Every structure is written in C-alpha cells, then in structure tokens.
Amino acid sequence: MKTDLKNRIADLLNKNNTEEIDSICTELREEQRNLTEQLDKLTEFGQREYVFRRHNQIETLGKSLYRFKQLSENGLSKEAYQEAQNISRLLSEFAGTVVYKWVAEPNACDRCRSLNGMTYYSPDDIPEKPHPNCKCRLEITTQNASQTFYVNASVYEDKTQETREEINEMKIEIEKLEQKAEENLKEVEKQEKLIKDIENKIDVNTLPPEEKRQFDEVKRATIAHKENILKIKKQNNIFFNIIDDVITTKNYYKRSIQDGIKSLFKDCQYKAEQYLIHKAPKYQIDILGHLYSIKTDMPEAWQAYKIASINYKNNTEYLQKNANVYDTIKNINDEKLEKEIQERLFT
Prior knowledge:
Layout: H1 3-15, H2 21-42, H3 48-73, H4 77-94, E1 97-103, H5 110-115, E2 119-120, E3 137-143, H6 160-201, H7 209-249, H8 255-279, H9 284-295, H10 299-308, H11 316-322, H12 335-345
Antiparallel strand pairs: 1-2, 1-3
Helix pairs in contact: 1-4, 2-3, 3-4, 6-7, 6-8, 6-9, 7-8, 7-9, 9-10
C-alpha cells in the first residue's frame, strides 16, 4: 500500500474524520485490482499466495474503514475507537516495504546467475525470464519499516454528559417559550370575553361600516391568534415527549436522535419566537376598547386607556386639555391627595 494512503488513513483516525473514507475505499479497491493483475506475472514464480494474502488484507481494511464510518456518524464513540484501533493494527501490517528478490539455481546459466540476489520494489521492474524452462524464482518478503500507527484516544471520549447538558438547555429554552405561550393564551381569552361582552351589549350589525369592519377583523384575528398559540403548544408538547423519552432511555449518544432533537428545537423556537414575540396582533385590544367604551357610554374609560396605550402616543392632546401635569407630588398642594398617591405608589 502507498505510504501517503496509509498516512491519510492514520490522520483521519486521529481526527475522527470520516469525510475522506469513501474516496480512500475507492483507492483501496484500485489497489486490489492492481494486485490481481500481477497474478499472471507471478504465477510461475510460485508466489501467488503472497498476492492473495495482500489482497485479503486490503479487503479487510476497507470493511473496517466502512464500519468505523458508520459507528462514528451514529455517535458510537466507544465502538468507533475500538474499530480505529483495529484499523491502526492493520496499517502497521502494511507498514513494511514489499521486496522481490531474484533467486537463481546453482546450475543456472550465466545470464540467470548474473541476476541472482537482485532486488526489485515493484513487479513492473522485474525482468522477463532470460530463456524457456528457466528454473529461477522470486522470493517476496517485507522489509520492516518499524512504523506503528497510533490512534488519538481523546477524540473518542464519551460525549454523553455534554450531549445531555445540551439537550437540557434546549428544554429550558422551550419551557420559557411555553410560558410565553400560556401568557398569550390568557390574553387572547380575555380578548374573547371582551368580544362576547360587546356582542351582548350591542347589535354589532348596527355599527357604522368602518367600526363593523374593524370589529369583524379583530374577531377573526383573535380566533386565528388562539389557533396559532395552540399549534405552538402542541408542537412544544411533541418536543417535550421526545426529550423525556431520550432521558428515560438514555439514548443521548445516537447521532440520529441528536439531530432530530436539534431540528425540532430550532423549529419550535423559530415558530414560537416569530409569532409570540414578534407577530402577535396586540393592536386588537385598542379597537375593542374603543368600541366597548363608546357603546357602553364610558368615554372617560377610553381616554384613560389611551393614556397608557403606546399606539396613541400617551394621548398628549387629551392630557393638555383635560388634566394638570405635575413634575412632583409635592406640587399638587393637597396634603390629603399627596398622601393617598404616595400610599398607592408604595403598596
């Protein structure tokens, strides 16, 4: 086997890198074909058994590399390390250099005796037999290159604890979003109640066209908002069930399970954050509040609400006409009112 190929295999073992294994296995098959082509040339020299042995060694190495790839990609670190050690042993067997030595019979001709003891490092360099019925032979040996291939054991350390912590962090993040979904659900239920209150107090069909359009729009949006929240909660429950199953069965190490959990986590997180945090239709309550205050004859309640609503820029115009603004409580000049406000602020 070529030295650079052996070194590439040793390097991928030390880095636990499986990306090159397919191309390396292709090169190993090519080397097997080359060995097979040598058989015809070596048959009459009686060294077929060596070629067959080398061919089988390469076959074993290729299968071991494939097993190593499958174990590594499925997160089986301990088993992958054991297979890597086996590959390292196989590489050490290939570390020697193949030498072909010409051996002539004692009564050989001058031409054959001149070749006696000659060594060759490739079958292509071996000369043809000088004459018919030549009794010379080739001895095939392996020069020991004293080369040992070591496997970096630290790369194959058990990642179970690290994976467990990562999965638990995902669970915590989804729990936070689940809490946000619960808060949104409570808000939308209040909105549903407000819609029913309005419908009970007035006939919405008698509203002016623009107000009727707004009311219908809010009602549809409220229903859709609730459905979206329930979908998010359902997806979160699926995530929790998978996590609980992994924790119960302790299947932290399986790559397929890890990838599945990460994919579902990203999906849950994206949908929840995009909708619950960024796209929830919070403007609906303003429209409902306005309609409710008008139809229940409580205009002051609506004006007070507008002061707190960011959509109405704190209703500065109303405040300027109908309220007194003080920089501090003491400016009120009313001891009783000042005391009452302070008590409200600090209780």
